[in-house]
Write the structure tokens for this entry.
Amino acid sequence: MKPRFSLVGRYSLLSLTLIVGSVAILSSLYATVADSVTERLAGERLEAQMAGTANRLTNFIENRIYQLETLSTHPSMPLYLLYRDGVPEGVRELVRVEADSPDLYGILFFNDRNELTEVIPGQAASGSPYWDRSDWTLAGLPSVFLRNSEVIGPSHSSGAGPNWLLIRQPLRDTGEPQVTGSIGLHVRLASLTELMRTENLASVLRPYLRTPAGELLDATGNTLTMPPQDLRTGPEVLPGWRIDYVVSAGDILSPLRSAQLGLYTLAGVMALGTVVLFWALARSLRRRVRRLVEGAEALASGDLHFRLQAPRNDKDEIDVLAHAFNAMADRLQDMIGRTVQAEKMAVLGEFATGVAHEVRNPLATIKLTVQALEKGEANDQRRDLLVSVEDEIDRLNRVVGDLLDYGRPVAGEPQRVEIRRVFRHATVLTSGLADQRQVRISASGDSRLAIYASPDQVIQCLVNLLANAIEACDTGGVVHLRAFRNGDRINVDITDNGSGMDPQTLRQVTEPFFTTRQEGTGLGLSITRQLIELNGGELHIHSVHGEGTTVSVRLPAANDDNLFTQ
Amino acid sequence: MPGFSNRHRHRTASLRRTFGRWWRQAAATAFCVFSVSLVSALPEKPPVGRVELGAAAEDADATVACMYPMTGRSASYGRDSIAGIRLALEELASDPLAPRLRVIVDDSRSKASFAVRMAEDFLHQDDANVLCGMVSSGVGMAVSRLAREKQVILVGTDHASSRAALEEGHDYYFRVSSDTWTSHAAGARYLKDLQASNGWRKLAFLGPDYEYGRVAWRDLQQALDQNGVSYQQTGTYWPRLYEPDYSLYIQSLLESPPDILVVALWGGDFTAFLEQARTTHLFERMRVANFDTGGDYETLVALGDKSPAGLILSARHHVNWPDTELNRQFVERFHRLSGRYPSYSAQGAYAGILAIAEAITLAGSVTDTRAMISALEGLRIRLPKDPDGFVSYIDPETHQIVQAQAIGIPRADDRFPPARVLLGDWRVYDAESLKPSSALIQERRGKPTNPTQHPNRAQQQSRSTQ
């Protein structure tokens, strides 16, 4: 009967529940921690970070304005517009040194018509307007004012060079002669945008500089062609200039998210592995348990020969159970066999006694009558017929005698019997048959061996077994007797090289009335076994069909113990 | 030490009566003499500040005033340039027919204003006949303008902006080291061959935000166009000169990675960039090329045992190319003199002094500026950089020296310690093929601004700017 819900299935379900439950709890915990980290990284410190960045940029502009004021208010500066050669050398030196700042391309002078009239290149100066002013213009560039300073730009370099911006102030009016103009710092835009560098949170916070023209600049000063997603509006640096930013906590959390994904994958693999493992276990266990069940059912249906296959050494509980089952079956078969045999013997004894009583006396009368008729019969042909009848009566009488012997066995008187004596008697008694069948009998073993048994019954048994062996042999066959000690037992092997028996015959050969010969009664081997067992021995038959048979008789050895107890 | 001897005599006379004090003075004198001897036996210390080499002022046929950085990140260029000048002066000293040169070297501090003022002082106070040197292109061009204004010959030995010889070229300016055009013309041909083999498409440029970087980028673009190389420009990056931290730019490059990154950083800047980039996946994502200065000996030393993958480098001189007797001798002599192997600046300075001496010999007198210009135009001079069968010469049209260029990739090689890698797998581009074409020269010089016109005097040509 198939179980409704297997034990393995329950264990599988329980394990799966545990795995999935653990992963769910871990995941929930993880999500909580991740949210907390995100909040700490991107939330709490964000404003402080952005305010710091904005301050750096504002401070940079303020410093440039301060630098510019030093120049724009210098009384000699208008000379650059009015009469350049009249600029004192010390002032020229001052302007050149100021222009050499690493954040500047140079210093530019504009006249009252906003025309560029003078350029002082700095260390980073290159291209327009220092070597070639053909491409240089302020037209179209956004302009914002911070107090008295004008911030112009950023420029559009479109990849030909870096972008820049111009911070310009009017030159101080010196009175006579009237000079109106302005001076500007030509500033590296990257010097400003590089200040948006976020040291520790580079992966979380990406600031961009939004210009008055709406362009978005990254920290390297390059213009973004596509604005990033989720851009947030940040603090203003200058009028129209502000820092926009993207919080991409995902970048820093991506290893954690990868770990989370890995966790889910691992849990999935574990769940799948558990299912597969338990399925395989269940399949194996079911198969093995089914075998146990089949064995039990076979036993229940009377098949006492059914045995479970089990390894020599127990590997697990199922193997132990299989061995226990086989041991139980052995004992049950033995017990039932003995019970059946006892009952069979009881019935057979009663039957044999009745038959002997009812058949032997009339047979004796018939035999006497046939003998009388035989003597009085002159006709040879009729006398031969009567002799045949007498032989059949003798055979019938023997059968009845065998039946009586088998049904009511009588234990003989055990005594010390030398095995050579048994061998000699038996070979003598069967020599006629052996000669007739042209079978050679040989014997080997220690001549001093002695058994403790009834000499007559042992000789009867051995004669019986020898006769069977001789009859199993073809002409020229060999039957060998061999005796040897095996502990407190003497083993006697009767081996022939005859036709042997198939397994089916071998299993039934000791059953009463089983015979393969027409003239046999089928009781000889049964009686032999019975007598050997009555003498405390055992009989085993090993036969290979087509090769021969060995009958092993194991009897108690004669020793001091059994002789003394006698 | 005449000053010291006078002082010594004076003191011993005044202290003659006191034997003990005399003894101490004598001991001090001996100690000083011993110290001077000891110091002269020690390895050369990096010069800081003004250095005078060669003939004394009263004996010199000409005074050459050179400016090199001797402090800061590029101080090694000045140090090696001075050693190169010493080698050239050694050679001239062994030639009785060669002019006796007095060479003054001072620290330009890589600042244009400082260098211009220094050059003016050289001319007015030291009566310098010829100006030379300059590593930074910005400084070089500022001094070039002064040379034009003062009508003094300037021989550039290390700054490389091609603008100096093309747009800004003038009668008095000559350059004896290869320029950004030469190196990037070779680089463009290398990239063209590379594109044919690996099919790269995307290119980015990272260069210092000053004259040199800007012109290098323009030269590379023009050379690529001339060679018919089609590419997609993914970005241009302009860190400031002597930038201490390139992480911002490396991060940006990694976010939009090109197939090829051409870098025009030089000296310590390029080394710093490489060191930072090595800690990232940059070299796995793109090939990095530096065609003008990347193969400098000091950069190769900084690469250590193993160079990052995919580097393509060249420089204006290599210790192991060309494998000629002259180059081997130059490198060995430099090593004997200084205890180290030369960076490319040494060969430029060496070439500059030899070229000036040769021009004086040909002109007859350094004061005859026109004759000097004529001598320098087309001057042929065999230099360590010349492969067999070629002699460098100064192009009369551009005043730029014409030289071959070799591009290689770093390979393990410890023949010139402490460098553990040197360039190898050379691709050599012959000098004539790297010269800018006449059309290009015309295009570059055909801008509205007159090259001979100082920009500071361009008021008349200024355009309305707003």
